[in-house]
Design goal:
The complex is a heterodimer of chains A (468) and B (154).
Chain A lengths: L1 H16 L8 H16 L7 E3 L4 E3 L1 H21 L10 H20 L3 H19 L6 H32 L4 H8 L8 H17 L8 H8 L2 H26 L4 H24 L4 H22 L4 H34 L4 H4 L8 H4 L1 H15 L5 H16 L2 H27 L11 H19 L2 H4 L3
Antiparallel strand pairs in A: 1-2
Chain B lengths: L3 H26 L6 H4 L18 H27 L2 H6 L3 H27 L20 H10 L2
Helix pairs in contact in B: 3-5
Classes of the chains: A mainly alpha (468), B mainly alpha (154).
Family (chain A): Belongs to the complex I subunit 2 family.
Subunit structure (chain A): NDH-1 is composed of 14 different subunits. Subunits NuoA, H, J, K, L, M, N constitute the membrane sector of the complex.
Protein name (chain A): NADH-quinone oxidoreductase subunit N
Chain lengths: 468, 154
């Protein structure tokens, strides 16, 4: 609750800080605001409160998700470097929009009422449409924003219709009210209820880019400025999965037999579509887009199983995934910028291909190490956080007895190793024109922190378990 | 027994039936003598010229956005006013209710006013934006030389 109020105030303050002559105050101010929100987030620790006439709820789980979202955005904002190299950029507005969108994300994490879920999803989505199109003179950015907006608006419409049908069936927007209606599952629920649940799921699955609702992801991730791609693929995904988990665990456990199998099939399709398509990509950024689809698939395993371990598994996985993704996109930004200056090529596609990483590790050991760690973590190699994330996810599937899903997931993570290692091979074993890339201190700190967190959580995954 | 959805369906059907009734009723009652003037787009005599799909000035959208913002603000103030003025609540809390409600709505209006101030300071409210900077060319050739050349080869 506190982060919502604080972030709203801070965002307005940031907008007006943008009128100052120097841009240099914006980045430290935003980072400071995010830290303040992170501290305020934990004020309610170990207590459960309902706020605003039972619209919002804070408990330890929601606070941990909020902390992950705030930490991810802290890292992303730190990597943004005040948008120094872009004259047309409006950093104050970007940072303010990021803070506003975090308000939406926190609402999605802690809602107790479907109306609040809708408001949160919309705040987050509208902010994302703007950030996707923030590179106004870039045609691909415009295209991405338009595509994202049209499809997102459509998905929102379906989700809203689903909520209306759920209300029509159960007579309540609150999660508790819907759960008490669903508890009469033995006597038979009205058909409207199931249709509503399906439409609500479709809307949310679209937001987390699960197949078959993933077609927007590659174009949007590819077209958006890299820094906002990093933000989108971490914060939106974490918030979306927190929302799905809360929804299914709080309201629909009684009708698990209905949605469990549907979600398991969606999971299998997502895993196959994401991983197999990622193999064929030549652009690193597009590969990361498909990789984010496949990680949505891994996260869905925990939802489709929805066992006692699922919460912990989803928290751990989203943290591991967020850190690895942010550091990978950070390295990509540095490399693209460097290549762009060297070749003066107007075609950004060539700067984002796998070849751009050729021989990177020889002259830039830190960048090589950061990229390698995050690729290993995303591939799920032991001693990285990603391994334990996958391990927890797979054990939820075992607990539920979904062995066929487990087999698909293990096969697909083997496929994943192929395309993640393409980057590592390019960096360490290929020759390429490389010069040392100048890394600003903030970048260095973020990359080192990401490496330490990834390996630290990989060596001692119990660190997080004690938290909640 | 009719469920709530059934009532809605009846409402929709009744709407269609009403429209059909009125339109067809008018169709059979009125005299039917069309001419070119009556069939034109604007009966006032305005001649439509050109394509309707033209690009509007982008500032129309900014003004429209700001307008909608404050329109919605006003809509929210009406329900607030009815709650704010409830004598029963004010008596029950010894006057504190009024101050509480007033503070809340002031906060609400201030946030929107900040938005207006931002738009104003950014210059989006000026219909004619400040003079655009014309590109200047740094050259050692004086301007009147160009003018002479232009005059000569007119």
């Amino acid at each position: 609750m506190f982060p919502i109020v604080l972030l709203s105030v801070f965002a307005v303050v940031l907008l007006f800080l943008g009128f100052l002559k120097s841009r240099s105050v914006l980045l430290p101010a935003t980072l400071l605001f995010l830290v303040a929100a992170l501290v305020a987030n934990f004020l309610d620790w170990n207590k459960t409160y309902l706020y605003f006439n039972s619209m919002l709820r804070t408990d330890n789980l929601s606070m941990v998700f909020t902390a992950i979202v705030l930490l991810s955005s802290f890292l992303v904002v730190a990597l943004s470097g005040s948008f120094e190299d872009d004259e047309a950029a409006q950093p104050a507005e970007y940072y303010a929009i990021i803070l506003f969108s975090l308000v939406g994300a926190i609402m999605m994490i802690g809602y107790e009422n479907l109306v609040m879920l809708f408001v949160g999803v919309e705040i987050l989505s509208v902010a994302m449409y703007i950030l996707t199109g923030s590179d106004k003179r870039n045609l691909r950015s415009n295209e991405a924003a338009l595509k994202y907006f049209l499809m997102g608006a459509f998905a929102t419409g379906i989700m809203l219709f689903g909520m209306a049908l759920l209300y029509g069936a159960s007579g309540s927007f609150t999660l508790a009210g819907i759960a008490s209606y669903a508890s009469h599952a033995q006597q038979g629920l009205s058909l409207i209820f199931y249709v509503g649940l399906l439409m609500l799921l479709v809307g949310l699955l679209f937001k987390v880019s699960a197949a078959p609702f993933h077609f927007w992801t590659p174009d949007v991730y590819d077209g958006a400025p890299t820094i906002f791609t990093a933000y989108m693929s971490t914060v939106v995904k974490t918030a979306g999965f927190a929302a799905l988990l809360h929804l299914l665990a709080a309201s629909f456990t009684y009708v698990y037999s209905f949605w469990g199998i549907i979600l398991a099939v969606v999971t299998a399709i997502t895993l196959i579509a994401g991983n197999v398509t990622a193999v064929y990509q030549n652009s690193f950024k597009r590969m990361m887009a498909y990789s984010s689809i496949s990680h949505a698939g891994y996260l869905l395993i925990g939802l489709a199983a929805l066992s006692a371990q699922s919460r912990q598994a989803i928290v751990f996985y989203s943290l591991a995934y967020s850190i690895a993704t942010i550091s990978a996109f950070g390295v990509l930004m540095l490399v693209t910028r460097q290549r762009g200056m060297q070749t003066l090529s107007s075609n950004p596609l060539s700067n984002e291909s796998f070849d751009a990483f050729n021989g990177l590790a020889k002259q830039n050991p830190l960048l090589g190490l950061a990229m390698a760690t995050s690729m290993l973590s995303l591939a799920g190699i032991p001693l990285t956080a990603g391994f334990w994330g996958k391990f927890y996810m797979f054990s939820t599937a075992v607990e539920r007895g979904q062995i066929w899903l487990l087999v698909v997931a293990v096969l697909m993570s083997a496929v994943g190793i192929y395309y993640y290692f393409r980057v590592i091979i390019a960096m360490y074993f290929r020759d390429g024109a490389t010069e040392p890339i100048r890394i600003s201190p903030v970048f260095r700190y973020v990359l080192v922190a990401a490496i330490i967190l990834t390996i630290g959580l990989g060596v001692a995954p119990g660190l997080l378990q004690g938290l909640f | 027994m009719l469920s709530d959805f059934g009532t809605l369906l009846l409402f929709i059907l009744a709407a269609f039936a009403f429209i059909a009734l009125v339109l067809f009723g008018a169709r059979f009652l009125r005299p039917d003598r069309p001419n070119i003037e009556k069939n034109s787009t604007y009966e006032s005599g305005e001649e439509p010229v050109g394509n309707a799909n033209i690009q509007f000035n982008i500032r129309f959208y900014v003004v429209a956005l700001v307008f909608v913002l404050f329109d919605v603000e006003l809509v929210f103030l009406f329900p607030w006013a009815t709650v704010f003025g409830q004598a029963r609540l004010i008596e029950a809390t010894g006057g504190r209710w009024g101050w509480f409600a007033l503070t809340e709505v002031i906060l609400f209006v201030v946030v929107l006013a900040l938005g207006l101030a931002y738009v104003w300071a950014k210059g989006y409210l000026d219909w004619v934006k400040p003079q655009p900077k014309l590109p200047t060319v740094e050259t050692k050739v004086p301007m009147d030389l160009y003018k002479q050349v232009n005059e000569r080869f007119k």
